[in-house]
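seq as requested:
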Amino acid sequence: MKAMLSRRNLIAAGVALPLLALPGCTTIGDFGGFGLEDAIRRLLTMSSQRAFSKLLREEGFFQDEVARIDLPEQLGGSGTASIASALLRARPVQTQLLKLVNDAAAKGAENAAPVVYSSIRDLSIADAASIVRGGPNAATEYLERSIGERIVEALFPGIGSALRLLDGGILSRALGSTAGIDFTGLQRDVTRKAATGIWRAIGREEAAIRANPQATRDSVLIGVFRLLR
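struct tokens:
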């Protein structure tokens, strides 16, 4: 019997949402008849799918060079003041905490992925030509500005739940051993860093697609970005 796909796998692949049924091509500008709005949505869809596919794997955030979350200062990260206890500075504890916050980020990303996909579908693109002609992350930056705080709002509850669920006692002991640390502040810190990591991962995939559109086997992306070379 074939194993059932988990919700995480479905979201990572982007097949749990109707976004893949992209609208028809609407010609904008002189790009060989290819629709620039369509191209941008395809570019962002593929970039997001690839990014989430990597981030939602086991230890996806932890293993990803651009998305990996550093420990917040209150858990002994860089810049921590003398308030940090010996427990927080111990290497085994640091490793456990680092994996904990990155796994929590991945859990939160499950809720953020549908927000990103639906936003791409509904995206209002004011100047498609400038985005297509822009830098390697121009479309991702445009999407990030359009979504704004909604991605943080989507991440926040899941990350809080994951921090508690995945804790296993290590986080409780760390928080209990150091004065001035609050769980909500930690949750907010991890959430902000997770959002940044997601945008960096999507931007990386966009840059790769722009650099080699032929590898996508998408005729619209190949046609539009090949003409710009």
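The longest helix spans residues 91-122.
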